[in-house]
Structure formats: structure tokens, C-alpha cells
Design goal:
333 residues, Rossmann fold, 7-stranded mixed β-sheet, 3-stranded antiparallel β-sheet, 10 strands, 49% helix
Length: 333
């Protein structure tokens, strides 16, 4: 007589899947997963998005976290949530979670949610702009509380110079040039450089740098990447030095950079690795306490970019810097 006993390994697999389906079997929780496709939101922000009490939102997030659908990310005294970064391809639970994500991502966000997300991003942007307006004259001094400019600028410059020997890069974009200290590097490599910043005060300082360094091939533009996308600009090279932790939605920088880049172009990013030093928010105007390398890779992949070389640099006060390159290849377009 054939045994009808189910192997223990099969039972354990089913047991592991049950919490995932239970946690995702709620329309509100699926909506939460949708808005967290690229963004990271705090409990209060998610409560604001879905117009519910914080206690109720915290309950839903706890259930989803326990099932592996979300992971918490501490930003100072606040807890933010994001989709998990490390989903192993050969684990059945991870495959199931990815399938849930892929399914909800096929459904466009309703307009009212998109408007609320944009309102939260604008709040973050206003916070960042207020800092740069207040500390424009002391920006370098404040920034060097974490990292001296040369510590991250020189490795990025060396990478770009090395790559430019094999690529005929004609146009470059620097997002968030600050005082313009990196513009001389780009000006020597590319025929035309655009420096984009949403802080009028910082652009004024970058203008002085261009005048002093006689950088005649640099255009300074006040605005955000959406402005360049609307104009139809395109670039061979995009650089974001110590910028991501100041922007409302870092993942969008990768999407916009990819849309603005020509095939064969490259995005160079330098930024802090995740840390727990909350004083940087007040002292340096940081919106985010650094990033996991896997976050940057995930955002780049989602934007159709391919990760290249990575450098990690130890800084004072326990900070670590990551210097990354992401390519727009013919295969990824």
C-alpha cells in the first residue's frame, strides 16, 4: 500500500508560505506594497497617505514585516519601511514575495495616491532647501563634518578619467553641484556640462566657481531633473556626489538619470553607507542616514542600469563612503 504521508520538507515549505499569503491577503496592505515600490516611508507618512491612525498602520506594518514583505529602516528616532533588499532567488519564500511584488506593480497607482506621495516629497524637498538656504555660506564646513571633499571627489574623478579614455563622452550632467568644486573635472573631460541644483544660493556659489576657474562650457540651471526631462536633454555622463541623502526620493534619481542618459552612458554616485549618526540630519541637512549598497543596486536595476565598479572608503567618525558606477548598456535599454 502506497504511503500518503507528506514529506516533512514539503510541510515546512507550506508553513513558510502561509504567513506571506495571509499578510498580503488584504487590499490595504497590497496598496502599501505598491507605494513602497521605490520609496521609503515612515509610519507617520504612511498614515498620512492612507488617512488612518498611526496605531492601525503600525499593526499592518508589523504583520507585513513578520511575513518578510517589508523591512524596517531606522532614520534617527523614526522607523521607515521599505521592501526587502536581499531576496535570494533559490528560496521558495523569496520567489513568492517577488511574485507578489511583480503582481501589484502591474497595477498603476491611483491619482489621489500619486498626489499625496508628491506632497510628501515636496515636504522633504522644502526641508532640504531650507537647510541650504540657511547654511549656504557654511556648506563646505558643514559637509566636512562628515567627509572632506577630496576624499570622495578624487576617487570619482579618477574613475571618470579612466573610463573617458575608452568612451567619447561629449555631454555631462552634475546633479547637485553644491559650490561647483567638481565642475572643473567635468569641464576638462566633456565639451558641454550642465550643473543642476534646486538651491539658488548654492548655484550662486557654483557660478562664482565657474567664473574663477574660467569654465566656459558649463551651464548652470536652477531646478530638478524633471525640468531637463521636459526639455528633452540627453547626456553621456551623469554625476551625483553626496547628493542622494539630500533628495526626497533617491530612487527617482536613478530613473531620471537613466532617462536622460544616452546608451553607453554612465551614472557615477558617491554617497554614505548606512549609519546611525542622527546628528547629521540637523548639522548637515541630511534627509537620509546613508544607504545600503544593495539599495543603490536595486534602484539602478529597476531603472535599467547595470552596476559596474564599487569602491568603499573609510571616513572619520565611523562613516563609510561608497563610490559606484552604473551603466546604460544596449542590452538594458
Amino acid at each position: 500500500m502506497t504511503s500518503m504521508t507528506t514529506p516533512a520538507t514539503d510541510l515546512s515549505s507550506v508553513d513558510a508560505l502561509a504567513p506571506i499569503f495571509k499578510a498580503s491577503g488584504d487590499p490595504l496592505r497590497l496598496e502599501i506594497l505598491r507605494v513602497l515600490r521605490r520609496d521609503t516611508f515612515g509610519v507617520l507618512e504612511l498614515s498620512q497617505l492612507f488617512e488612518m491612525r498611526q496605531s492601525g498602520m503600525s499593526h499592518h506594518l508589523k504583520v507585513m514585516h513578520k511575513a518578510g514583505l517589508l523591512e524596517p529602516q531606522r532614520e534617527g528616532n523614526a522607523i521607515f519601511y521599505r521592501r526587502p533588499l536581499n531576496l535570494e532567488s533559490d528560496k521558495l519564500t523569496d520567489q513568492t514575495i517577488r511574485q507578489v511584488f511583480q503582481s501589484v506593480d502591474r497595477i498603476p497607482l491611483p491619482e489621489h495616491l500619486q498626489e499625496k506621495i508628491e506632497a510628501i516629497r515636496n515636504q522633504r524637498a522644502d526641508q532640504s532647501q531650507a537647510f541650504f538656504s540657511r547654511y549656504a555660506e557654511k556648506f563646505r564646513e558643514q559637509q566636512e563634518l562628515i567627509a572632506a571633499f577630496d576624499l570622495y571627489a578624487e576617487p570619482v574623478a579618477n574613475l571618470i578619467r579612466n573610463r573617458s579614455e575608452r568612451h567619447d563622452w561629449k555631454t555631462a550632467l552634475e546633479i547637485g553641484p553644491g559650490e561647483g568644486a567638481f565642475l572643473p573635472v567635468l569641464s576638462k573631460i566633456c565639451r558641454h556640462v550642465v550643473a543642476l541644483d534646486n538651491s539658488r544660493d548654492m548655484l550662486a556659489k557654483a557660478t562664482r566657481t565657474c567664473i574663477e576657474e574660467r569654465l566656459n562650457n558649463v551651464d548652470l540651471i536652477e531646478g530638478v531633473t524633471d525640468n531637463l526631462l521636459a526639455r528633452g536633454d540627453d547626456f553621456d555622463l551623469v554625476v551625483a556626489n553626496m547628493v542622494l541623502h539630500h533628495v526626497p526620493s533617491p530612487a527617482d534619481i536613478f530613473l531620471d538619470a537613466s532617462a536622460l542618459m544616452n546608451t553607453g552612458g554612465c551614472l557615477f554616485v558617491s554617497d554614505l553607507c548606512s549609519h546611525d549618526q542622527d546628528w547629521a540630519k540637523e548639522a548637515c541637512g541630511d534627509l537620509w542616514l546613508g544607504f545600503e549598497p544593495e539599495e543603490l543596486t536595486s534602484w539602478a536595476t529597476d531603472a535599467g542600469l547595470v552596476a559596474g565598479e564599487s569602491l568603499f572608503i573609510g571616513l572619520r567618525n565611523g562613516f563609510q563612503m561608497q563610490v559606484r558606477e552604473f551603466w546604460k548598456t544596449a542590452e538594458s535599454t
